[in-house]
């Protein structure tokens, strides 16, 4: 028996903070793991984009933008987004972890829900969606898999931020089939969506919750898409008679093919749901009425009334033996012949009508399947020259509208992306917007020198500049510790007054002055420098004949680098104390001999005699006295007697 290979992400530490524990789920765009936030000591769900998606710059840009939009939604019925970032080549999104199941799991277990259960779940879903619509966010991927039912009873709407990013790649197989089941007609035919498109998906979900099945099914995604574009969603009560008429009306309202006939947004539909909810709580299950035809039963809403022509067809056929004696056989035969002709004509009309419907269905199927209305894959043209990109789009049957915009990653003059994005589906013959890069936007760099790091980072972020999370520290005599000393680019050069968007910026923060260690013992100097994250490097020892530095203390300290940063070394010279030598005894010597003896021993000589008379002078005293200790290089004073 073979075992599945272990997931390499299990046990990995993401961005130095999130410890991956186990895998929760895997989808077409990302894998969700249970992780521990080591900084805040809590469990989180971390969604890691698949590698082939994370390599797409357009995808990453949209992912970051949509993650920020989702993070702005603070609502009890929306899954909270805590963090977003990139670790090496992995783009990730950190979300609230909710132990429980999805609405899809609930439907698998129970198949269909009661009207009361449906109302409870839809009330929470619409409340969360209303908050998103109010913030200008369209979900675009509503389905039971994205409705989370927590163990503690909370109901939350998830996967905000991924619907738009998903257009960067084509979903296939079951993932595509599950998504197409909830696509609105305008998304199928025109590739556009707004808040009303989300409500269409809500209506399909309600139908599925109430009946246990989706309104449209097919062997191929195109068949389902065709039904969304051309058919009207039936009432849930046509499949489940226990569904109240109020819920029928809500489903039909939300799933109207014309977006103008749907609720304007989730708030409008939520208000209507809450208006009818009291009546729904008291609704008794509806039983199917039995159609009984008796002479005494008048036609009612539940009674099926047969048309005369149909009733005649159901009556026993007339025969010659059934005729009364006074009936005319010729007249009866003529009547039967006329009735037969009428049935033939009606049959011809029905056949013609069926053939027309079949032709219309075939024509419509061709139009949306292979003709001008068919969906085609938008080619990925990021990084191409505009002419080459336009040719590729036109070859796939699209019209192209070029638009210029700034892009921090794509060089000026190249294609920065398309809308719809490459890899997505759009109607053949529709217009694809092609974005031509103007290069990064040039931004004025705010003056933050001397400001605290937190204030400087906030000002740079507000200006739209990309600031590295790490900072550099540098010692300075002029700027206080903790204040911004400089802003540098990736090469370490100081930033100019204007800087391109998206280019990395590193903040250099002052570490204060380099600690002074002159006069300290070697051990104390090493400890003091260590506290400042500097090291001590002894480059030599020397005598201090000034008497200022005792033996074993630091005489001088000089940095080895400019500027000085934590981790650098400081060169120091250690004092050997004073250099003491014996003073020669020169009393009784002639002055020239005395001077020579003292200078030879390393001393300087002071006397008051002119050089012309020195040979005639005899030394009679000296200071310091002979045979005592004195500092080498110090002065010895001589006095003497001149003998002529």
TrEMBL record:
Record Pfam families: PASTA, Pkinase
Record-listed E.C. numbers: 2.7.11.1
Residues annotated as domain PASTA: 371-438, 439-511, 577-644
Entry GO MF terms: ATP binding; protein serine/threonine kinase activity
Keyword Transcription: no
Reaction catalyzed: L-seryl-[protein] + ATP = O-phospho-L-seryl-[protein] + ADP + H(+); L-threonyl-[protein] + ATP = O-phospho-L-threonyl-[protein] + ADP + H(+)
Example of a GO biological process term: negative regulation of fatty acid biosynthetic process
Transmembrane parts of this sequence: 348-369
Region Disordered, residue ranges: 403-427
Alphabetical keyword list: ATP-binding, Kinase, Membrane, Nucleotide-binding, Serine/threonine-protein kinase, Transferase, Transmembrane, Transmembrane helix
InterPro entries for this protein: Kinase-like_dom_sf, PASTA_dom, Prot_kinase_dom, Ser/Thr_kinase_AS
Recorded superkingdom: Bacteria
Top EC class for this record: transferase
Domain Protein kinase: 18-280
Protein name listed in UniProt: non-specific serine/threonine protein kinase
